[in-house]
């Protein structure tokens, strides 16, 4: 069992996109009030006093859309400067990167994962509910120019929608040092859509890419579950995140903290989460907070294998945008 050293931290539950795979079709989500969201000061306290001392020293900022939260760049700066923090990264839809990539880099961020589900602006609009392809593409260029490395592009593969674009998206890794990752569509966020559409197995995608370009094993820095390959001679790599066709729970090294302070031991497990915000706001000491997190850490191996689905009877209470992916 690997050490649990990676926390996915959701900065905000809101998003300026409406991706069909991530949110319910009617877009009806109850959003958190500002007072319910952990403040940056509270987050920094938890990171410095609770998570880092327990060996959790890698942090990924996600959301909703992390960059729509006011002050996100300042928070990145403060987080990168905290003693004991080994790695900070971000997952974003890229909409605000054109404006913010340089500031984020100066603040200390070096790794970024950007969602890009299509190279076709119309299909992109159909998937994300927003006609922002050109702005996102410019954002990706800005991130590339300021020097983000690794720069990863996330594609959720949707049957009949962007599936046919997989070879073209994979080809983005040839000329540039970009790491394109294909994610199997999971039944969280929009289960009705998932049931109607189904998902595509990573091995099917690898076969198609192998036939067109060839494919070899490779490596790329990261803390996540992707299996990494490379088109021979390419500057970047291809990652496959195969949570539907493979079980990678034996390598699971992470916890998730929602914007309102719920710490969950597994993406799929809603019943074993703890409410750190209420503890923090009712005067619980740092030592007691560490004990609460330690309880989750001690239970984690068991949850990975046997209890990850417990408490999620059919439909998940929270969407991916609320959990942070
Ligand atoms: N089932 C499952 N899916 C995960 C897990 N971690 C990441 N994923 C999936 O992979 C997607 C992309 O993850 P990213 O936010 O880009 O981060 P990552 O791949 O963990 O990060 P690095 O490897 O550090 O770059 C997530 O949105 C999920 O769909 C996990 O622990 N379990
Ligand atoms: C929830 S988003 C949050 C960060 C940011 N808004 C973005 O889109 O990159 C994080 C990741 O979750 C992935 N995701 C969302 N819903 C998913 C689903 N149903 N199945 C697989 N991945 C999903 C997205 O593609 C994205 O890479
Ligand atoms: S995947 Fe990201 S950009 Fe798309 S709706 Fe979900 S949170 Fe927003
Ligand atoms: S399903 Fe849960 S235990 Fe398995 S890899 Fe994902 S977060 Fe970890």
Automatic annotation (TrEMBL):
This is GTP 3',8-cyclase. It catalyses: GTP + AH2 + S-adenosyl-L-methionine = (8S)-3',8-cyclo-7,8-dihydroguanosine 5'-triphosphate + 5'-deoxyadenosine + L-methionine + A + H(+). The gene is moaA. Monomer and homodimer. The keyword Iron-sulfur applies. [4Fe-4S] cluster 2 binds at residues 249, 252, 266. It comes from Gloeobacter kilaueensis (strain ATCC BAA-2537 / CCAP 1431/1 / ULC 316 / JS1). Its EC number is 4.1.99.22. One of its GO terms (molecular function) is cyclic pyranopterin monophosphate synthase activity. HAMAP family: MoaA_B (MF_01225_B). Residues 1-226 form the Radical SAM core domain. Its cofactor is [4Fe-4S] cluster. Binds 2 [4Fe-4S] clusters. Binds 1 [4Fe-4S] cluster coordinated with 3 cysteines and an exchangeable S-adenosyl-L-methionine and 1 [4Fe-4S] cluster coordinated with 3 cysteines and the GTP-derived substrate.
